[in-house]
Structures are given as structure tokens and as C-alpha cells.
């Protein structure tokens, strides 16, 4: 089977790092998300918000084909990255996930040392460098996730032996080590205390300079203070499929929403 | 939403215990809990009791007293001295006095008596003149607590016999081959057979079982062939159907009685595949080979027997690896196989190994399928290859317990202890291995 490659030389003629066009996502016969179209701007933070069950996590997971892992899940429509539909039958999901990294809701470091956690990604992706270069890469990734100063003296320590907030930053560092272009974050702070949450948010602002970030969050304040654009999802009461109600710059969504339902949601009247 | 003042609901007033009544009510409920706790403790003690009884029953037979009667008393030969005190020429003199000339001639032909050392001469005297013979065997209990009775009976039946303590489990017993005389019989042949069987069964069932478990857990829902072509769709259906038959029936397979696996082994490995299992196809024509009734047939049969259990326990271990780790790995661009090899298996390995070793140690105690497959009940030659005739410890024990003599019952008990030590050390290996792997993995 001829594999198509995502063109690395592709120069952006779109302002979007990722673009979703008319996406419907099914779990077997059930349509979980319908008519989803929006773009995620380059070097910006895009927040996906909405009440539970509205499909925002499903959409996020469709962006690097993590939904493929769920039996019976199916995506229709296009997700465009570098001018290429990621759901083209000749595109390998493994290739997609290298460029579009993911950070999960619950920090999930491997039961390996901090060093090996970071080195894992490059190694499985065919790392050709020397040991010294790997040391350097690990340091760069940990610095990128603002974790280096805290763990530099015990890189041999287990990734599970550090605090929850540090574990989540380790997971971010791990994602950075394979040099992705987009980082997807699925409620990365939901299990963290406010101080750790703040650190992650500061980190997101740092990362924005080099990466495009898409984050799913339940926390309205977080979306308001830590994102550039916001997409608001809501479940259609009739067929229980999630759909986009409104999307635009965060400021506009939070201060002058065009849709009544958006206003109700962000002012806490339902959801 | 404003909270309403909490007033007692008229319907429940007086229906729930109040005041002093609460104390009594709680006390009586706690009482009931204590009663249950006590009865649960009782079940534990029943288990303990059974264990102690089992251990005592075996020890009682494997150790005990024997009455030894000598054809000629040492004192009569030596005039009241011990054999060890005598000088070499004196020992030669005793032999020359007491043996017939033909026997003497034979001994001299092997090695002239005058050239032999004292140790050797004492051995010859014991074997040829004194001829100690076990005339009665007593269990440990009788030996310890019914001493007077035993001695009275001995004095009556065998006045010259001497009562002494005997441990049937001893080094000679482990290294001696099978013999029709229980005094000299050992378990070497059976022990070697069991070890051969153990190693071969592990080598066959572990890779197969683990492989099947990985496929069923990780790949079952994957499509191997191109789903867009009709041929590919067809083959995908076939594979899907057959793997789902296996995964739904694997528990049933593990419950099939072992004798039925024995019948299967007899039909397939011993009979149908005789050319291969007897080794004749490979040019291995051993003198000891008996058709297809070889170690390899037994090991294949045992592997079939343990395979379902190995698969199930490996599946459980693989299932226990958190799916978040798989997702993390796949999310970094690892392929499915890299994820399995580098994340899933290292984390599942302790569980897989423990399950496999426990399953196999269970099988090593199996007798029924091996009787069917044709383990020998009496052989004295050690197994030397996978095409050798063999016997195993459980068969040897079964064989000895069915003999009428007390001595055989005693050595059967000693063989049971040998088997138990083997099994317990296998289980201990499983535990140590698991702990080692867990500690080596940084967690």
C-alpha cells in the first residue's frame, strides 16, 4: 500500500495550523459530533469549551486520530494539516501523531525514569543521534516544559515519583521531545491544584511561540484567561449530537457572544 | 434554592431508634458482624487444619522406624568389638573364615582381598555375611509413641532384630534409579523425567500462550487485510470469526478434564505423529525409544493442557496495563508493535511469568494424561533426549502407593516430599521473579 507522506516542505497558505471541515464523528451507529467546521490558528491557543457530553474531547481526539483506537469510532469529513486530509485512507495515523502531539487529562508518565520518559518518543521514532545529543534533547524538552530546574539532579528518578503537576509537565516535555507542530491538551489541569494549574497555563503561553495549542477545558476562567480563540460546543437536544454553537476570538466569545446559548453557558446559567 | 427548616417528618417519627435504643441497636448490629467474623475465621482454621493433616500424613510415612535383622551378629564375628576397630588383616580373616570358597574366589578375582582397604572389606562383610534385612517398618507415630508395643511385638517375632530410626528421604533416594527393592529404590529416573517435561512444557507453552494472549488482547479488533477489497474483507471476517471463537471458548478449554487432553495427546502425538514424536523421522533411533510414547509427546500434551491457562493469565496481565500508557505511547508516534514491545509487555511481564509458572507447576503434578500418553511405570534408564522413554514423579508415586509392602508406602511418601519441594521451589521462583521484575522496573 502506497503511503502518502505529509509534505514537510509545505508552506502555509492558510493561517490555520489545523482545520476541521464538515466533520461528523460516529461511535458505531451513534453520531456523537455533527457538522463540525473550524480552524485552529498557528501559534495560538484554541480552547474547546462546552458542557459534559458535548463532544469537545471527541473532536480533540479526532485531530490526531486517537479516535482510531476506539473500536467502532468513525470520522467523516476532513481534518486538514499542511494541506493534507489526515483521514485520507493512505495516511498512516502513526505519522500524524508525531506531528500532532497529545497531553492527556490524567498525567500518564511511563513507569520509567524521567530521562527515559523523554527519550522514549525520539527513540520509537527512529532517533539517530548520539548519547550526548539525546542528553541535550532531554534537557531542551524539560526546559521547554519548565521542569528542568526541578528535576535536573535526578533524571534517573521514576517519572511516577514526582508531584502531579510535575508529572503533567513531564508529559508535556515528553510530547515536545518529538518536535511536534501542534499540541493537543485534553483537560490537562482537571486533576491539578490551582498552583500547578497556573504553572501549566504560564507554560502554555511560553509554548505558543513555537507551537499551536488546542486545549479542551471545563474551566471557564481557564478558557477566558489562557486562550486566544474559543470554540463553544453544545449537544443538540434532538439527536444528542454535539455541534459548534459559536467560535471566534476568546475576548469576543466571553464579552459579546452572538448566540444566546453561549451567553447563558459562560455566565453559568446552565451546563 | 433556599433550604427549608429541618423538621421531623411525621411519618418516620418513632420508627427509627432513639436515645438508649440507638446504643442497643448498634451493639446488636456489631454483635452480628462479630459472629460472622468468627465463622470466617473458622473456615480459615479448617484450611490450616487440612494443611497440617496433609503434612503430617506425608511426614508420618516418609520417616519412622525400621527393624533390622542381621543374619550373623557383629559381636559373634568379632568377639565383642566393632568392625571399624579391626585392622585390615583381621577383616580378611573374618571373610576367609565365614565365606564359602567359591564366593571367596569370586571376590579375589575382582580384587585380591589382601589388597583391599578396610572400608571396602567392611562393605563386603556387611553385604555377604551380616546381611542386614528390614523385617518390619513402622510409621513415625508408632515409632515415637507406641514404642513399647512395637518392641514387645518385635521381641516375639524377630528376637534378633534391632529397631532404628529411618528417614526414607535421603540423598541416595534422590540419586538412585528405580529398583524393585524398596531399600535401594530411588527417584532419579522420575525426577529427571519431570525436569525434562517441565522445561519442554515451558518452552512450548510459554511462547505460544503469550503470543495468543497478545494477539487476542491487542490485535483482535484490527483488520489485517485491506478492508476496501472484497478478498481482504473476506479474510478479515474469517480471522475475526475464528479469533472470537477462541476468545469466547478459552475458559471452557481451561476447564476440560485433563484426561481428555491425555486422550487427545494419545491420538495425535503418540499415534498420528508417531514418526516425529518417536524421533525416527529425525534419525534418532534410541534403544529406549518406545513408539511415540516419548518425553516430547508428553510435553506437547502437557502444553495443550496448560495453554488455555497460560493464555488467560497472560491476557489478564496484559489487560491490567493501564490503557493510558498505551495512549501515551501511541500519542508520541509509536506504532502498535512498539507500544506492545516497549510499554505493554515490560509492564505485564511479572504477571505473565507468575501466571505461567503457576499453571505449569500445576501441570507437573498431573498424572492422568501422562498415564494415557504412556509414561512408563518401571524404567531404570535415565531420559537422555526428547525421544526417550520416561516416567515422572506423580506416576512413580502412584505406582509405589499401589504396592502392598509397607516399604513402598514409605518411599512413596518420600517421593511426595520430593515432588512438593520441586513444586514449592517453582512457585518460589515465580514469586522471586515477579518481585525482581517489579523492583527493576522504576515505578
UniProtKB/TrEMBL annotation, chain B:
A single GO molecular function term of this UniProt record: phosphate transmembrane transporter activity
SUPFAM superfamilies listed in its UniProt record: MetI-like
Pfam families according to UniProt: BPD_transp_1
Organism field: Candidatus Chloroploca asiatica
Subcellular location(s) per record: Cell membrane
Protein name as it appears in the record: Phosphate transport system permease protein PstA
Upper taxonomic lineage: Bacteria, Bacillati, Chloroflexota, Chloroflexia, Chloroflexales
Keyword Membrane: yes
Main location: membrane
Transmembrane segments: 35-56, 195-216, 259-282, 294-313, 410-433
GO biological process terms held by the UniProt record: phosphate ion transmembrane transport
Keywords, ordered alphabetically: Cell membrane, Membrane, Transmembrane, Transmembrane helix, Transport
Chain intervals for the UniProt region annotation (Disordered): 1-21
